[in-house]
Amino acid sequence: MSKLRVAVIGSGQVARTSHINHYKSLPDVEVSAVCDVNQNAAKMAADEFQIPSWYADAGTMLEEIRPDAVSICVPNKFHCDMTCLCLEHGCHVLCEKPPAITEEEAEKMRDTARRCGKILTFGFHFRHAEKIAFLKRKIEAGEMGTLYAGDVTWLRRRGIPGWGNFTNLEMQGGGPLIDIGAHMLDLAAWLLDYPEVSYICASSSDLIGKQGGTGFMGSWDGARFGVEDGLFGFIQFSNGGSLHVRTSFAVNIADKEERNVRLYGSKRGISVFPLGIYGDEDGQSVNTVYPFDETKDWHYDCIRNFVESCMGRADILVTPDQAVYVQKLITGLYRSAGTGRPVIYGNGNL
Ligand SMILES: NC(=O)c1ccc[n+]([C@@H]2O[C@H](COP(=O)([O-])OP(=O)(O)OC[C@H]3O[C@@H](n4cnc5c(N)ncnc54)[C@H](O)[C@@H]3O)[C@@H](O)[C@H]2O)c1
């Protein structure tokens, strides 16, 4: 089979560190073009990575290059339009996370992929960790019993990015929930197998963000801080289970950062970072911590899964339906925090 011809739209941080370089490392892939509205950025990426063509307009690139597959690495605001444009041009698409800003956009992306008969997946790269597949098998084998509750956590003490669009509500659609919490929600949803939701409630704050300051991800301007600095929520499932959600760019905690997904089962409990399984046998605590490589770059596995799927040699791991579910959780948490009221679900719409 001839090489998969790939193009990358957006040539910023994630395109350079996690897409173009990994595509270039795969023998079956040719990176045919890069596109960025900032044409200097596009040209620089083309020069640096020896990509034969660069463009400032995605439509022109798709018409002239006709790639087989495209990575979308632009701000969240443009995920839906760019993804649908590429799908309509007959391309398979790997869109960076979060899927989009609204659930309607995520649904449109899913429906367009379905109509066009193309692969659509998303950059939830933690899902590609070997330990997640290992855990999923253990859960499916019943080793945890019934998983009835959990915590989804990504808290930074002072980790407001001082660059890019991370504090720009219009470009991003939100702060830590949509940026980093989304990864942990994706893992929890996958491990819990997408339970139906009965209600969601949450609160959020921007009190630290609005002050401005400096942290381990640079300095930020309080006057231009437009997103939440923390969101704290609760998701009640129709099966009686529940999930606490805690996510922040800046919160007064002891450590620099806390990141985990914990799930509590009737037989055993799980901690994902690092991977541990905890139980009790004959009155004794039994703790098993598994030595998975926590430093591996799972972006590579995400790119490889996309390429293998495009070439018909693998199934896509992160599906559009799963992405829509995660987007609906994000939207519900923001809606509740914005109104101060629970969001009630019914009729199986989440
Ligand atoms: N999977 C992950 O862990 C991960 C990590 C970082 C970023 N991301 C996601 O990747 C996306 C990009 O993030 P980034 O950090 O690379 O941002 P960035 O600001 O570094 O780069 C974005 C690039 O997109 C370009 N751009 C903007 N609008 C465009 C358009 N309409 N057409 C073409 N180019 C356009 C900008 O000029 C810029 O060069 C975001 O959605 C972010 O959430 C995911």
From TrEMBL:
Domain called Gfo/Idh/MocA-like oxidoreductase C-terminal: residue spans: 136-343
Domain (Gfo/Idh/MocA-like oxidoreductase N-terminal) ranges: 4-124
Gene3D superfamilies listed in its UniProt record: Dihydrodipicolinate Reductase, domain 2, NAD(P)-binding Rossmann-like Domain
Top-level taxonomic group: Bacteria
SUPFAM superfamilies listed in its UniProt record: Glyceraldehyde-3-phosphate dehydrogenase-like, C-terminal domain, NAD(P)-binding Rossmann-fold domains
GO molecular function annotations of the record: nucleotide binding
Family statement: Belongs to the Gfo/Idh/MocA family.
UniProt name for this protein: Putative dehydrogenase
